[in-house]
Structures are given as C-alpha cells and as structure tokens.
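A quick aside before the break. I want you to see a complete sequence-to-structure record at least once, exactly as it would be stored in a machine-readable document. Don't worry about memorizing anything.
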Amino acid sequence: MLPLGDIIKRHGISFHCYADDTQLYISSMPHETQQFHRIKDCIVDLKMWMSNNFLLLNSDKTEVLLTGPKTAMRNNQEYCLTIDGCSIKSSSSAKNLGVVFDSTLSFESHVANTCKIAFFHLKNISKLRHMLSLSDAEKLIHAFMTSRLDYCNALLGGCPAGLLQKLQLVQNAAARVLTRTKKYEHITPVLSTLHWLPIKHRINFKILLITYKALHGLAPQYLNELLLYYRPPRTLRSKGSCQLVIPRISKSSAGGRSFSYLAPKLWNILPCTVREADTLCQFKSRLKTHLFNLAYTTPP
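That is the input. The structure line, written in tokens, reads:
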C-alpha cells in the first residue's frame, strides 16, 4: 500500500487503507467545486499504477459520499464521477467498516440497519429459547445482539433521544426473550436485574473509556491531541481535579456531537473517584457502577 499512499499524497488528499479497500476524502467549502477534480485525477493515477502492476480498480464498487450540513447538501445533492466511461453518482449512504454513514451524519440508516439485523437474530434465538438455559441464552444474545448494539456506538453520542430509543427497544426485546417477561410487564427492573446498562449509558461508557485511554497514553495520539487539561488562571478548588477544557462550538447539532466537545463534557461531570482511578480495570468498574446508579437508582 505504500506506493498507493505516495500517489495519493501527491494530489494532497487524505486517505485510509484497509486491506483491499482504500478511502479518499477531502474537506472543502460548497463553492469549491475544483476540489472534486483532484479526486478524479488521483483515481486516474491510481488506476494506471494498478494496471502496470497487474491489479484492477473495480469501478463498479467505487462509491462517492458527500457529507455536510443539511442546507449545504440541498444545493449539492449529486456529484457524478466518471471512470472508464462508468458514471458513479454520489450515494445517499455508504458503509464504512460496518457503520452506515449518510450524507448528514445523522446515522439514521445505521440505526435502522442495526435494528433490522438484531431483530432478525432475536427472532431466531426466541425459537430456541425453551431449549436453552438462562446462561446459554444470554451468551447467544450477547454474541449476536449486544455486540452489534455496542459496535462503534461512540459515534452515536449526542444523537437525538428518539433515534437511541429505537436501539433501546431492541435491548428491551432481548431482555424479554431472555427472561421470558411478558409484553406488558415493566422492563426496567428486568434490565436492572440483568445488570445491563441502557443504550444511552452504554454509549457514554464507551466515550468515557476512550477518554481515559487517551489521557493515559493507551489510545492513538490523534485522540490525545483533542483533549486538554483545564488549567485555571489562578489557584482554585478545581485545580488538580483532572477536569478537561470544553471547547466552544457554534452549532450544538454538529459540534456538540464531536469527540473533542462531548468527551470533556461527560468527563467533567464524573465523580473524582472515577476520574482518578489508577488502572483501566478500576476505572471501568467504577464507571459502570456510577452509570448503573444513574440509570436505575431512583432519586429521593
């Protein structure tokens, strides 16, 4: 992949390479249409290099996805890329490492796809439930459903509550199948008994876990660079509390979902005993206990 990287860098384009999948991406303003020509020229050079090295660029599997605010996307709904006489129009969504990205990054398509697959597996598990013990049935549910609900769920941080509720319905249905709870019985006590965190808190758990790893050198450097410790201008009680700087954002709908904003916001409201955990295992244990109490402990 090194020769391909050199070709892409020559065109000033950012990229990711995964086995036989290469992703190119650029950032531009809506009126900067000349940026698209860089992508086309880069793909032509990549195809030429592949042809000279007995490889083939599959034009039929090439996808183009434009992302941006809804107002900007209305004016740039379609972009057509021509490769070898094959016209490739911009898609409304595209799958990236198992996550479905849409043009506005709302993740509605991803949630709908996750729910569809999860309910398919849950239907099959329910047919076998009477033959399985509780522990075996729980293993199946975690393998085929919980793993899907938790996969890349940090991307859903800050999403509307209505969107997360769709995933919560999947978890509720799984708990009913596992414990054979009737349809109209209250599900919250069942989730508490199973020690399952609700979807919203599972997302916060993943974001905070990544934050802890980034602050302690256990995550990629680019994540650590997004987090800054809060240094008060004078001696305050907040000094030494391990709080982070929350950057200012112009739009809560977009900037409020970024890791650089959401991670410090969630981190700063954690109890000091959780933030100051000495080890990763200790942090995970204290964090789950804290989130569990938030989810199921009724305030006095």
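Two observations worth writing down. The radius of gyration is 23 Å. Residues 141 and 147 are 9 Å apart (CA to CA). We'll return to this after the break.
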